[in-house]
Amino acid sequence: MKDESEVHGEAGLAAALARHQIELPADQIELLERYCGLLWEINKSLNLTRHTDYEKFVSRDLVDTMMIEKQLGPDERVLDVGTGGGVPGIVLAILRPDLEVTLTESVGKKAKAVGEIVAGLSLSKSAGLSIAVHHGRAEDLLGARAFDTLVARAVAPLEKLLTWFQPHWGAFDRLLVIKGPAWVEERKKSRDRHLLDDLQLRKLATWPLPGTESESVLLEIKPKE
Fold it and tell me: Which of 31, 47, 95, 153 is the most exposed place for a label (fewest CB within 10 A)?
């Protein structure tokens, strides 16, 4: 059997960060390392992520989250749509303690697992951070609460996201979505269904998709002015 160092990267998180020329404060590195440990332990019995070593975590999960983080203003109220194993929401909360982050997950077992990770990391208001876990669909929460930004990664095609949130634009300002190369076709389908008639879509950033010749993109969608 492989030992922990072989499974999760013998040199650890710090070495993976160095390979990608990412510098973070020591306390954030410690929290991210603990997050990975808790996530990967739960992942042995519940499929939350395919990224089970530090190289994949940094090159995919952390890099994607940092692209979102760059677009967020101080003290924003952020809703993570379908958080899965906590990306980007938990990672955002670690990188940006000023944010008020809410994680939504419609699958009960996953919501419970993410709640256990948040508790295990002491990511709560009492720890100086603001993060909450909601078991349910994001659009159901929007009837009771307002947010500045919704974030979505690997959740659903663009036309589905826009259909879900079409009645709720009064409860949030914008939607940030990470997509792969299929985003152009998804945009066309959304336009054909008139889901973008009253919205503006901008491509905010692109970056390489590791292991491929393709790119990831960060899209911003908000009502037309």
Answer: 47
